[in-house]
Amino acid sequence: MTTLAEVSKYLGLSMATVSRAINGYPEVNEKTRQRVVEAADKLGYRPNKVAQKLATGKSKMVGIMLQSPDELVCAPTFLSELAHITNYLGVNGYDLLINSSLQGDSLQALKKFVSKSEVDGLIIKAPMVNDERIQFLVEKKIPFVVHGHDTSDLEYAYFDIDNASVSEQALAFLHQLGHSKVAFINSQESLAFAKTRSDAFRQKWSELGLESEQCEIFHCTPEVTAGRELAAELLVGETRPTAVVCSSSKVAYGVYMAAAELGLKIGSDLSVIAHDDGIQHFDTREFNPPLTVTHSPLTNSSEPIANTIVKLISGESPAQLQTTSPVDLIVRGSTGKPNSN
């Protein structure tokens, strides 16, 4: 087993400097810390966790809270995201501890997790509107980063995508093509990202001068069956929408299925746009026709989230660790001008 002394000799640095770098002391500059971490990984050095906690008061563990254990089974892309986060944390000498809410009470589950575990910081996913978990963590001064962010005025670290732009880009593009009857199939607005997307959709149709009766918002779970069932109701009659914006590629796939059953051709009779998180087994380029999307893969968030929680644990201010990532509009064959027939 490689020792601290061997890492020190390999780098030509003192054992004290190497130890401080591995344990995240702020007096070691980032360039040196990264050099030490990479060398330790190359040489196979693994610090003694017990000794490390005694020396620093830190467990070198980060917790992540899931809304439900079903996320690990029903969302294969989330497994990939977890793997990436684990890898990036490991480079910085941290392990990832996973927990979830079993009975749907996410706040109580979080309190229990915090009281029983020795994590140095937390990663929170899928925040609700005015999320109670965020308020609790801010009050307790526990380092945490949120994947997403809620609608409160609390100051905390987060990594999010530009959810307002998801709706704005989709509706503006459809309007440019000539569509005025547009349905938005969104997730439940108790989720912060869904509330942001709905608010932006409403604001955009007002800016474009569209009638609210022509641009309606509907809600369903982000699953193929739910999208198919809702679309089967929306796409009948002379007043049906000529375009549909979907919250996810799974919902869009359900819309494709309903359209086919009703004899509607995607791209001419009906235009469809969805947000694409890069869900495994749902490659939007392989849809028939290929799906027009706003695009921002979930796995792109893994490294910044891992780096953010490490910086928070090291004492950096949450106000300096707030990121909103842009989304791209990728135009493919599922969108076109409305059919005059």
How would you characterize the overall build of this protein?
This protein is α/β, with parallel strands linked by helices and 341 residues long. It folds into three domains: 4-55, 434 Repressor (Amino-terminal Domain) (Orthogonal Bundle), CATH 1.10.260.40; 61-161 and 299-325, Rossmann fold (3-Layer(aba) Sandwich); 163-298, 3-Layer(aba) Sandwich (Rossmann fold), CATH 3.40.50.2300. It contains 13 helices and twelve strands. It has a six-stranded parallel sheet with strand order 2-1-3-4-5-11, with helices on both faces. Helix 6 (76-91) packs across helix 13, helix 9 (163-177) runs parallel beside helix 10 and helix 11 crosses helix 12 (249-261).
* H and E string: HHHHEHHEHEHEEHEHEHEHEEHEE
Biggest sheet strand order reads 2-1-3-4-5-11
Shape annotation: elongated
Examine the coordinates and then state which fold CATH places here, giving the name of the CATH topology of the largest domain.
Answer: Rossmann fold
Largest sheet: 6 strands, parallel
Helical content stands at 40-55%
Round the mean pLDDT to the nearest integer and report it: 88
List the total number of helices: 13
Q: DSSP strand (E) fraction?
A: 15-25%
User: CATH homologous superfamily of the largest domain?
Assistant: Response regulator
Given as residue ranges, the uncertain stretches (5+ residues, pLDDT < 50) are none
The CATH architecture of the largest domain can be given as 3-Layer(aba) Sandwich
Oligomeric form:
single chain
The CATH class of the largest domain:
Alpha Beta
Structural class: alpha/beta
Integer-rounded radius of gyration: 24 Å
Strand segment count: 12
Organism: Vibrio astriarenae
GO molecular function, one term: transcription cis-regulatory region binding
Pfam families: LacI (PF00356), Peripla_BP_1 (PF00532)
Keywords: DNA-binding, Transcription, Transcription regulation
